[in-house]
Amino acid sequence: MQQRFLLLVALKNVSATVDATETEAWQKLLRVMTHEIMNSVAPIASLADSLGRHLQQEREKYRQEPETAPDPELLRDIEEGISIIKKRSDGLLRFAHFYRNLNKPQHLLLTTIYVQELLNSIDGLMRPQLEEQGVELICKVLPQGLQLHADVNLLEQVLINLILNAKRAVQDRPKPQIVLLAHAENGKTVIEVQYNGSSIPEELLENIFIPFFTSHKDGSGIGLSLAKHIMLLHKGSIQVESEEGIGTLFRLVL
């Protein structure tokens, strides 16, 4: 141009295209896997529902014959356990149905969620198995009335996957600890999952969200891919930081 050579550089954000390609890579396999999950979980949900009804009938009987009633605290524990099984079974069935139809337009079941209630639910579900392995679980929400708009079942699944990964990472630490911290930041809601376990090597950080990539011999490489996909459906993001000797932090931004 005017006897001069010009170098033209065009920049384009291809992250959306990369994400779509990643999703396509594993959606076919997931449809097969979710079919098997639904076949296994449906009877569990049905059984939990039946047990809940039987428990109610027993409560009615004990009201009429209080001298034969067992420990009330025991009944409450059983009722709470059945409720958790039923809730997570229903959540898993919806989760499986959701991913079995990944090739179709997806409709999130968006509701207003009180983050404190969300973390209480996760705490009730995960604390018993964490305490069995000596892992301390800490949940904090600031401010207490923090809310967000999301699909609660899918968001629970993301947090469960992250906590299970954290549990594996901290199992060899002298004082294993997992912290769930939710707070508001620049008009958005941020949920952080921090743990003081083994760090993720820097050369692997860019790969952990790739479908089927795993550095563990017993890992599937699906959990973090699903977490990322769920966050993208919510028009949110998932970020990770990891440092040797300190631990790892996952940030869910909604």
Automatic annotation (TrEMBL):
Gene3D superfamilies linked to this entry: Histidine kinase-like ATPase, C-terminal domain
Pfam families: HATPase_c
Entries under InterPro entries matching the protein: HATPase_C_sf, HATPase_dom, His_kinase_dom, Sig_transdc_His_kin-like_C
Keyword check for Ubl conjugation: no
Catalysed transformations (reactions): ATP + protein L-histidine = ADP + protein N-phospho-L-histidine
Keywords per UniProt: Kinase, Phosphoprotein, Transferase
GO molecular function terms listed in the Swiss-Prot or TrEMBL record: kinase activity
Entry's EC annotation: 2.7.13.3
Protein name as it appears in the record: histidine kinase
Originating organism: Pontibacter silvestris
Lineage of origin: Bacteria, Pseudomonadati, Bacteroidota, Cytophagia, Cytophagales
